[in-house]
Amino acid sequence: MKKVIALVGGTGHVGKLIAESLLGNPNVQLRLLVRPDSRQKVKALEERGAQIIEGEIGVGNEDALASLCQGAMTVISAVQGGPDIIIDGQKQLLIAARKAGVKRFIPSDFSLNLFKVTPGHIITSDWRLTFSDIADKERGNIEVVHILNGGFLDSGIMFDFLRLIDVKESVAYVWGDGKQNMDWTTYVDAAQYTAEVAIDERPVPRAFKVAGNVLNFHEIVKLYEEASGDKLKIVQLGSMADLDLRIEELLKGGQQNFLSFLPLMYYRSLLNGEAKLDLLMNDRYPSIKPTTMREYIQKYVNIEKQTNESR
Ligand SMILES: NC(=O)c1ccc[n+]([C@@H]2O[C@H](COP(=O)([O-])OP(=O)(O)OC[C@H]3O[C@@H](n4cnc5c(N)ncnc54)[C@H](OP(=O)(O)O)[C@@H]3O)[C@@H](O)[C@H]2O)c1
User: Fold this and answer.
1) pTM of the prediction?
2) Beta strands in the chain (DSSP E)
3) Is residue 166, in this structure, part of any structural domain at all?
4) Residue 235 alpha carbon to ligand 1 centre in Å
């Protein structure tokens, strides 16, 4: 009997990688909830054997969610969205999973240590914390497992979103002294850990904490310089107190400026250590050898060089 693993968000960055990891396991039947307009995005996964249920999280979709969860061992959410999705939508999904007798539910966190971040410091973490409180009350016998993997070290997050390094300008930005250790994991590795948690027959801790790398700002700069041969100019943007003030100032602009303050909120919680993971659990799945920052940057730099040469 194959283990049925149900996934919502299989068309997204994280969800697609979780789906691919699960499809590599012959003992798994992967089932995806996909919005009708997004079906084309999962064509390759469908061809590899994923079963598709058309529908979405949201009122009026109860039948689709029941079909998704029917007979599933684990339901994984890798959705992205506002509080309507992260709090209300995931609650709806959890209740559908509970009604179907699912063993485990993995919400869409893939996050820094959201249980330690000061409430109000990262608004998107607040929504996830609110959901975790709801889940504790609503879960029944379901094991709810939060995947905490630190920041994604992939270029789209570390370079583009957090702007720790501006690759084009050869500048690295920091607030404070940059000496705090931070947790970093690739998308692919976080997806593999999630797939392992999903099929694990043993009880899994409520907060499953992994990190491919634990490095401070200066160590990342050094690794980048060694891998690229490019000297980075370090720009110290101010103290941690200055960063607090900067975020407060940006918050006055209202929610429409979301993207101006959200990266700074995440960077603050990494740099001040409040989001640091303790007691990493990488060893639970020794077959996963997480990508090191050096390997990732080396690969990234090589790809960038080839792309520039072919232009
Ligand atoms: N730790 C980190 O550094 C870090 C960085 C980035 C992301 N994350 C976390 O990773 C998680 C996934 O993020 P992502 O970047 O992979 O997101 P993404 O690429 O934007 O994908 C979002 C997914 O959610 C689906 N979705 C949205 N609303 C839905 C609904 N109502 N019903 C069903 N599906 C719905 C989308 O489907 P469609 O294709 O139909 O739109 C898509 O598959 C989030 O929790 C995010 O916070 C963590």
Assistant:
1) 0.97
2) 3-8, 28-34, 51-54, 74-77, 104-106, 143-144, 146-148, 151-152, 165-166, 171-175, 182-185, 207-209, 213-215, 233-238
3) yes
4) 32
**9 Cβ below 6 A of ligand 1:** yes
Residue nearest to atom 5 of ligand 1 (CA): 152
**Domain match, 196 and 269 both:** no
Whether residue 212 has its Cβ less than 6 Å from ligand 1: no
Pairwise CA distance, residues 244 & 268, whole Å: 8
Q: Do 61 and 133 fall within a single domain? A: yes
Same domain (yes/no): 13, 74: yes
Q: Give the nearest ligand 1 atom to 108 CA.
A: 45
Task: Kindly state the average pLDDT of the residues 185-205.
Answer: 98
Q: Which atom of ligand 1 is nearest to the CA of 111?
A: 1
- Are both 243 and 168 inside the same structural domain? yes
Indicate whether 208 and 268 sit together in one domain: no
Q: Which of the four pLDDT bands, split at 50, 70 and 90, describes residue 281?
A: very high
pLDDT tens readout for residues 130-145: 999 999 999 999 999 9
Which of the listed residues 8, 14, 92 should we mutate to test ligand 1's pocket, taking the one with most ligand atoms within 8 A of CB? 14
Of 288, 138, 102, 104, nearest to 210 (Cα)? Answer: 288
Look at ligand 1, atom 31, and give the residue with the nearest C-alpha.
57
Q: How many domains, the chain? A: 2
Q: Is the CB of 211 under 6 A from ligand 1?
A: no
Cα separation of the two ends of the chain:
51
C-alpha 202 – ligand 1 centre gap (Å)? 27
Residue 255 has pLDDT above 90, yes or no: no
- Cα(79) to centroid of ligand 1, in Å? 4
pLDDT of residue 131: 98
In CATH, what number is assigned to the domain containing residue 166? 3.90.25.10
Q: What's the domain range around 219? A: 155-181+214-274+288-309
What percent of the chain clears pLDDT 70, i.e. is strictly above it?
A: 100
Q: 3-class SS at 118?
A: coil
